[in-house]
Write a sequence for this structure.
């Protein structure tokens, strides 16, 4: 039996992880849960899974939780430090990192520093701090198993391969809800339309990123640091069926692929049980029903953030932090209905164009660029409104 803690337990990945745990036949013990503001759901998770430590985003929520939850000995904490404490909890064997955005970085690093297995869903931490995380992995002996379906696919294809034999890695993208929409019509798409993803059921931020295809741009950068692959070896193809999660071409011309049902429980289960495989929780793929698997080039005129992410990846330094932060702010503003859908890409592009490259050598450097870019993006959005 392995002990598991989940950072972001009340989110889409967190809930799917607890579902996998629940159906595992007692193979996992939940030790810690870190959530944001969803007290009711955290309370239900605590009643069912009996962790030893929980954390909430805000002190007042942690205080309320303490008042309502007197059942048994449970450490209740809060804030970034609270999530880090959950990540470091000494009984942990596996930490699932599934807080959204740069808020997940410090807890993810805490888990990596502890030298444990980290099932990584929080792609933004790899985007802004890939080299720092990998340096910490080298020192601590931690093991990162990707949860993102594309990266899990690559990880599985590469399990028995030498990285120097890889010629090209292709990340697939569903294309999101606007794959068939014209650029003109896409401009004013609403929050509801952008959140209506045709294939995946996910949290709001990653769903909007999937509509702009920034998600694929972030995943490109994530793949760079997860697998140590040079940018020119990384490509993207639109694959509307979302059945093939990644393609890996080897130097001898063989192409390896990982296919599975379009459900995050598959890569989550793999990350938790690796290197073992357990019984599937979903019905098998039926290829006679799927019939067609299509692949297209990305239209970068329509989805300019994919091209921008590649430029940022090649530029390096502080650029990925600026890209990520500008996108986080713009998506938040779109979700609050303060800006148009097309403003997201415009604003992120303008922030990145005006960004002055700096060296990133520490966590402090990352958070300094994040702070400044957050302010610049807010100012730019004010000016435009
Ligand atoms: N969903 C997917 O299918 C999928 C696939 C691949 C990768 N990912 C990545 O996985 C991560 C999570 O995605 P998601 O879809 O699960 O997002 P989500 O549904 O929005 O869940 C986010 C989780 O993080 C918590 N949280 C947010 N801010 C926090 C903070 N400051 N401190 C502590 N907890 C905080 C939320 O808590 P409350 O809800 O309690 O406020 C929630 O539990 C993202 O980085 C995403 O890109 C997701």
């Amino acid at each position: 039996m392995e002990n598991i803690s989940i950072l972001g337990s009340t989110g889409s990945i967190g809930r799917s992880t607890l579902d996998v745990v629940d159906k595992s036949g007692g193979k996992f013990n939940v030790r810690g849960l870190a959530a944001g503001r969803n007290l009711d759901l955290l309370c239900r998770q605590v009643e069912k899974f009996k962790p030893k430590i929980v954390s909430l985003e805000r002190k007042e929520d942690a205080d309320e939780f303490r008042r309502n939850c007197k059942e048994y000995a449970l450490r209740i904490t809060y804030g970034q430090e609270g999530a880090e404490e959950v990540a470091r909890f000494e009984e942990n064997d596996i930490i699932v990192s599934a807080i959204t955005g740069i808020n997940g970085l410090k807890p993810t690093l805490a888990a990596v520093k502890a030298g444990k297995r980290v099932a990584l869903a929080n792609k933004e931490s790899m985007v802004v701090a890939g080299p720092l995380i990998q340096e910490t992995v080298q020192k601590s002996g931690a093991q990162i198993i990707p949860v993102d379906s594309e990266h899990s696919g690559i990880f599985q294809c590469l399990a028995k391969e030498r990285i120097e034999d890889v010629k090209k890695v292709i990340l697939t993208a569903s294309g999101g809800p606007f794959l068939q929409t014209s650029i003109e019509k896409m401009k004013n798409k609403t929050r509801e339309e952008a959140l209506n993803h045709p294939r995946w059921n996910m949290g709001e931020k990653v769903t909007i990123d999937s509509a702009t295809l920034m998600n694929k741009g972030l995943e490109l950068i994530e793949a760079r640091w997860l697998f140590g692959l040079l940018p020119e070896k990384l490509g993207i193809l639109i694959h509307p069926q979302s059945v093939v999660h990644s393609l890996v071409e080897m130097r001898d011309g063989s192409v390896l692929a990982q296919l599975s049902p379009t459900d995050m429980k598959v890569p989550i289960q793999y990350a938790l049980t690796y290197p073992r495989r357990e019984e599937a929780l979903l019905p098998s793929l039926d290829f006679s029903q799927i019939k067609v698997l299509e692949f297209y080039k990305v239209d970068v005129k329509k989805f300019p953030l994919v091209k921008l992410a590649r430029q940022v990846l090649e530029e390096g330094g502080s650029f990925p932090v600026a890209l990520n932060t500008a996108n986080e702010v713009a998506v938040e503003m779109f979700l609050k209905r303060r800006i148009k859908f097309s403003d997201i890409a415009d604003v992120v592009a303008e922030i990145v164009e005006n960004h002055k490259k700096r060296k990133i050598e520490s966590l402090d450097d990352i958070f300094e660029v994040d702070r400044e870019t957050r302010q610049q993006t807010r100012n730019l959005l004010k000016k435009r409104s």
Q: What stands out?
A: Residues 149-302 form one domain.
